[in-house]
């Protein structure tokens, strides 16, 4: 059994931040469970383009309001608490935070914690042997 708190993750290698976002990686590939689980916050007023070519991501918004624009299909969605989106087609997307967003995210395959978004918003596929 694994039990962790975001408090104990804060300030460790599992607490990763970039320009306008922060991701607390609660479960990672090295935990050997087949997915990773993160709490991600996006700063109010920021805009981000992501494109997960190597991962499926499910996102559940638990706090805040924003806009999700599917750049592959030119569709825009308004997001608020309780919204969920699933990037099951590896869609390139733009996320605009009207207020601070707090999201719970699941990645498959799991991320290792070493990934960094490249210039296209893509995480490389990094595999950890468990």
From TrEMBL:
Pathway participation: Amine and polyamine biosynthesis; ectoine biosynthesis; L-ectoine from L-aspartate 4-semialdehyde: step 3/3
Catalytic activity, EC: 4.2.1.108
Top-rank taxon: Bacteria
Annotated InterPro entries: Ectoine_synth, RmlC-like_jellyroll, RmlC_Cupin_sf
Keyword Lyase in record: yes
Keyword Lyase in annotation: yes
Pfam family, one: Ectoine_synth
Annotated catalysed reactions: (2S)-4-acetamido-2-aminobutanoate = L-ectoine + H2O
Top EC category: lyase
Keywords (A to Z) from UniProt: Lyase
Function: Catalyzes the circularization of gamma-N-acetyl-alpha,gamma-diaminobutyric acid (ADABA) to ectoine (1,4,5,6-tetrahydro-2-methyl-4-pyrimidine carboxylic acid), which is an excellent osmoprotectant.
Family: Belongs to the ectoine synthase family.
PANTHER family per UniProt: L-ECTOINE SYNTHASE, PTHR39289
Protein name: L-ectoine synthase
Source species: Nocardia jiangsuensis
Higher taxonomy: Bacteria, Bacillati, Actinomycetota, Actinomycetes, Mycobacteriales
Gene giving rise to this polypeptide: ectC
């Amino acid at each position: 059994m694994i039990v962790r708190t975001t408090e104990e993750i804060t300030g460790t290698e599992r607490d990763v931040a970039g320009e306008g976002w922060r991701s607390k990686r609660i479960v990672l590939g090295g935990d050997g469970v087949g997915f990773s689980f993160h709490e991600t916050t996006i700063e109010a007023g920021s805009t981000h383009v992501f494109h997960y070519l190597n991962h499926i991501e499910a996102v559940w918004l638990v706090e805040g309001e924003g806009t999700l624009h599917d750049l592959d299909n030119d569709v825009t969605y308004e997001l608020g608490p309780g919204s969920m989106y699933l990037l099951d087609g590896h869609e390139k997307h733009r996320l605009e935070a009207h207020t601070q967003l707090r999201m719970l995210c699941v990645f498959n395959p799991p991320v290792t914690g070493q990934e960094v978004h490249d210039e296209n918003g893509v995480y490389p596929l990094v595999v950890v042997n468990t």
